[in-house]
């Protein structure tokens, strides 16, 4: 009788079992989702398999996967590393494989294989796995599928494969991708395009981050659970430039590690001897094993402060007592007044990522009716349903006299329902909070995708911040984890968590890390109660440390947003802060209440000035108000924006998603931005002048990436090469295509502006240049007074070298990274001599060329400083002025800064580039003797100038992974104090809505603050 | 000994490794009340993370945590305390550490603590008139601690009695620190010699040959808590580890400055820097000498500046040097076939290490495709490290068996080459 071998692969999300013979013939198998209970799932799977195969034939057991080792110990088998096991299985089924893409639940792997003749097997030549990030893994897709309510098995891939026009979605981080997806949903992008965009994001992320710029040698195998997904298969074919079908997908791709583990046991049978299966009962002790090496936290159930009671039927907002009170006698509840007239009400609609909330309030701010609905990826459907239900409930008795909309879908919703007032969600939350408790000093608001901290002083916002591209302290994380654990987040979760005597310490960290930790603790045997309590703590700790950061937390704290439903999170906040945290009535719809109040106030203001307005409300029943959504790629410029078009019957269409105002004109007709000077366009004109790539001539032709220091130094380079009789060709402005190629090829975990060098190099490769120059700027002249040195950030100096090292095998054009010391003339000229020698030119030209170039460089700075002086002199307070502080490569590159200057001008603000300020007149050395990059000194100098000029305020633009900025922002805050500033962390994600929200809220905040001070 | 300016304060060294015990001892030798803080704990790390912004490099967070933890102890008085926050290099964000520490400590009611920020630029001068002697003594102590750590790592995998190497290390550390506190470099040399005998006396069995793994990277190399006891994990998987020297950091700074002086044609400065570098290397040779014979399969001394430059230059500008300076010892050993794999530790958001990691694949190609693994650490526990280590050790074992390969560069993406098919 043929001897059989049992292979078990216990991964992060699934359990795989395979029974094979020594020739890799598969006898039986199981592939089951573990639902957080890997051992129990395995036990059941083995039980099931005993019905199919005689386990008495099993002579060896091998395990693999992150949870496989203790299984092997228990069953008396041998544990194998999963990469080694997968390689072994490939030796049996696909010995021709040379590169492997393996994507499982939490892990993604790239394998570079070669055939070893002496072993007669494939061996690993190189590999990489996801390290501190789970983007590019199966759970990334799982989460998005759950959010969209579609099945990951089958439906996801089938829909994605239908897309002809995949949406642009960032893949670097799960959170960024999620934000993009939500934005696309709210803009009405078709589902197949979103799904295909997710698949492409995953594939791009794999290539850029998991394989880290390593190249793929064909034949390429794609395996792991995600290989089931046709959309991802297509995405990899596209990203790896393969013809359909060239990607090899093993027949049992999901079982490869389990099969390999079994075959490795078969290989060792002579050495180890037979080892019959020990029986499934051996797993029982693991199923019930409750030992985990976690760090226990205080029990949430023993919290010193009272937990909220939830009652959705109350109408009172609480006012002074903050607790649900009895219904008011007058008004409310949607009843006609005594005289039979309809009750005047204001409608507030808050369209968020997870929920869509609608409220009607009366003129005393009492809630007349409310709805809390799931957005479910279809915001207008949710709004339509909510309005209809409220109309059925109270529509006959009320007169809607004004409507406010807020939330990330506020503009689209306003167009659809006939909204009158559109306000950002921060301002709306504050307005509701101060209506609930006029003495409130701190607001925690945690919703599906956003977390907000707002500090209030007598009704005025004095500080606020939002989660910066991190979902660790948000509701969606909690929901996803609850679903993964098969728990109802609203009831079971909290009940379980409050019972835990020893909550598991999960740390405060990125969502993805935490998920890995949960799996790890579960596999170690931590109970659900401990995990849920740990998650409640994790949300609170993440929120406090990453959102609130070092900002003060007051004594009257209101906890708003959907997450406040969760008593265990409230208890965790109280435990960590050691003070009461109050959850007000209607905490889950405070955004809608707030914007309804703001609408009422706007109407009253207009009445008071004798210019009353009439609502545009379209009515409660919008079932006949049909709309269609479609998406197209605008080809008007290289950005190739994915524009979503919402067509409402009989009305002009609404467009979203364009980076420019090409499609916005009908909605924003006030044209106030046209009256505000565009200093960023002026700056770009001064940098790039009338540059146009010349046709190929007899002169040498060099390519220069339009990235990093080019935004400062192009006048220098242009004059230099002109004097050297060399044509210079710039890469295209950063656009969607350049970002895409960057993400595919940049194998460095730097900030986006540095990574973009890769995309610009690839762009230049298509522009018929003799060599692509990659200047590594090491230092430059002082931008402020009093600095010991002016060295550039190490990423700026080093990325030209890393790009050259990683892209040489990708591009055809020769690359040349060279150092440039701008600060000292003699050193600079020595650098230039090496450069011109490389170009085959005479070094005799260098001195004159450098002189001309440096003069152009100085002229550029003189011009922007002069223009800056004139702008500052012209300020009179009639137009608010905001200085964009950062680096030229993140504020002057429109794509990198999400067209922030344009957006601010649309909001009626004059944005000023920070280097228009007289930075060179400021001495920062009394406190900051030596900043590691000149950008840092400039940031501090800009802070001092903004602080001292009452007509200026600041937005600080930075990028994820900018280590220097983590220090500079602290310094900036110190020098600017007490003036508030807005911090915007911008990246390759397309979360334009978040940028607008932050800007609007910041502007509101400035107004409120100045009101109180006056 | 010369008086020290901080005579009314205790100077705390907030380093991430036990090398700082020797540095504190050297300062005590010169009359400065000094104390090296204990190595990272969960509590100290947690305090640092709470107080920092969250995006600072890990080194800053770790150091901040030490200070906050120490400040909670009853015998700590901010008025009589100072912390040592060296300005390591202008190519690194560490130049901002002192200022940011001051701000955050002030926010936490610890504004009275003096921050001492000597600079690499002036050889960390500023402590009394004989700082050069103090600097030399500190250096000797650092080299001494480094040597006994290396002896521990070269002995432990082969010891017959479990724990004997660790015990020898504890005894040796105490001996080296005490010798440093005596103020005489010759005593440090004697302590190292004594330590060498301790390790020599440990019974070992050196067969079969273990897989030799070179561990390079930044500061986390020397902190078991933060690197999840990586050395022991590798040893448990059949490896023997050689960690790059802690003090290579100083050679790296020197290299960058020499390169810069050379690029600027500042011959006088270049000569001065070279002399300074040579002085450090002379002390290193003096301290290593009594145990040199114990490093037959390892590099007894740090790689010379020209060797480092030679390994870096094909890929990278030696003037920047951060991170890449670590390649030299690894590649030197690999070139000599005394290494079978290289692991580079990449602390989260560490500029130098991130850059170095991005070139690891290219560098490993230079020497026959030695397995190369970059491990990113965020100091909060990396749960899939084991999987990667296992696969890497498997890969290193293959390299040990087969030796360097004459590999071709991978084909260009999207261009399928038929000749690669089996």
Compact summary:
The complex is a heterodimer of chains A (1014) and B (422). Chain A has 1014 residues and is α/β, with parallel strands linked by helices. Chain A has 32 helices and 29 strands.
Report on the architecture of this protein.
The complex is a heterodimer of chains A (1014) and B (422). By secondary structure, chain A is α/β, with parallel strands linked by helices. Chain A has a five-stranded mixed beta sheet, sandwiched between helices. In chain A, helix 3 packs across helix 9 (256-267), helix 18 packs across helix 19 and helix 24 runs parallel beside helix 25 (794-807). The longest helix of chain B is centred in the middle third of the chain and has 25 residues, at 131-155. In chain B, helix 1 packs antiparallel against helix 5 (131-155), helix 1 runs parallel beside helix 6 (164-181) and helix 6 (164-181) packs antiparallel against helix 7 (185-200). By secondary structure, chain B is of the alpha/beta class. In chain B, strand 5 (211-217), helix 8 and strand 6 (239-243) form a beta-alpha-beta unit. Chain B has 15 helices and eight strands. Chain B has a four-stranded parallel beta sheet with strand order 2-1-3-4, sandwiched between helices. Chain B has a four-stranded parallel beta sheet with strand order 6-5-7-8, with helices on both faces. Classes of the chains: A alpha/beta (1014), B alpha/beta (422). The interface between A and B is large, with 95 and 79 residues.
